[in-house]
Every structure is written in C-alpha cells, then in structure tokens.
Amino acid sequence: MNNWYECKVKYQKVDENGKQKAVSEIYMVDAVSFTDAEAQITKELEQYAGLGEFNVVSIKTASYSEIVPNESGDRWFKCKAVFISFDEKTNKERRTSSNMLVQATDVKDAYEVLSKALSTSIADFTIPAIQESSIMDIFGILHDFDKADAKEKSEE
C-alpha cells in the first residue's frame, strides 16, 4: 500500500514580464513518513536546475486509494468513485466512496480514463465528482515505473 504525502513548495519564479514572484506548488510523493516525504521531494526538485532555491513549507497526508496515470494527460484530477454492492444479510444497497487521482487533459478525459480503469471492477460504480487539483506532479512509484519503461525502450 502506498502512503501519499502532499508537499507544498515555495520558490521564486520569473514571470512573463521578467519579474520574480513567489510561487507555491503542490507535489505528491510516496513515502513512509513525513521525514521521508521531505527528503524525497527535496531530492526530486533539486534535479530541476531552473527551480533554484526552494522551501518545503508544508507536508500533509493524502488519502487517495488509487492513482491512475495517463501518458496523454497534463493535469491531475481528484475523482470520487462510489462502489455499489448489495448486502444480502440486510437486503440493502451498500455504497463505498473512494478518492482517486487521475491524470488527464480535462474533466471529460478524466471521466473516460477513470471509467476505463474501473471497467474491470466486479462492483457497479458511479463517478459523482471530478475536480481539477492543484497537484503539479507525483513522485515515487509512478516515476520509478516511468524510468524503468524509458530504460527498457532505450535498450530496444
């Protein structure tokens, strides 16, 4: 199981007019603790030379049951999926909510990507809410897979 942490990072960015302004961005990392999350986000962001100095100003746990990456997506969307099952003991319908992050280009694309990802689910489901998040990128398990895929492709 993944432990996701949202890390808010502040740094100075040069805007279109050439002026520096303070910017806050949110990144997610897969970590085992707050200390590990800070170490990982620092390590990941140090690789971006144009970022310069930055400060990790807050870290909080994120409760996403699943992350659904999509190569063609450029933004992350918070999606709420409700799984519907029938409890035979009580003869009642049971609904279980789950929050997921989906990488997509827009809300419609996020709905389609999530629907496809959930299509193999045994339970019926609905997607009652999709909202664009302020998450810039996700580091951790997803990037490890991306790096492994890139390495395999370069070896072919």
- Average of pLDDT: 86
Instruction: Note the run of SSEs as H and E.
Output: EEHEEEEHEEH
Task: State the low-pLDDT regions, or none.
Answer: 143-156
Helix content: 25-40%
How many domains, in number, for the residues?
2
Secondary-structure-based class equals alpha/beta
Query: How large is the share of residues in beta strands?
Result: over 45%
Number of strands: 8
Overall shape: it is elongated
What value does the Rg take, in angstroms? 18 Å
Strand line-up in the sheet with most strands: 3-1-2-8
Largest sheet: 4 strands, mixed
Q: How large is the count of helical segments?
A: 3
Q: How widely separated are the two ends?
A: 32 Å
What does it look like?
The structure is a single chain. This protein is an alpha/beta fold and 156 residues long. It has three helices and eight strands. The chain folds into two domains: 4-62, no CATH class; 66-132, no CATH class. The strands form two sheets. It has a four-stranded mixed β-sheet with strand order 3-1-2-8. The chain has a four-stranded mixed β-sheet with strand order 4-6-5-7, covered by helices on one side. The two termini are 32 Å apart.
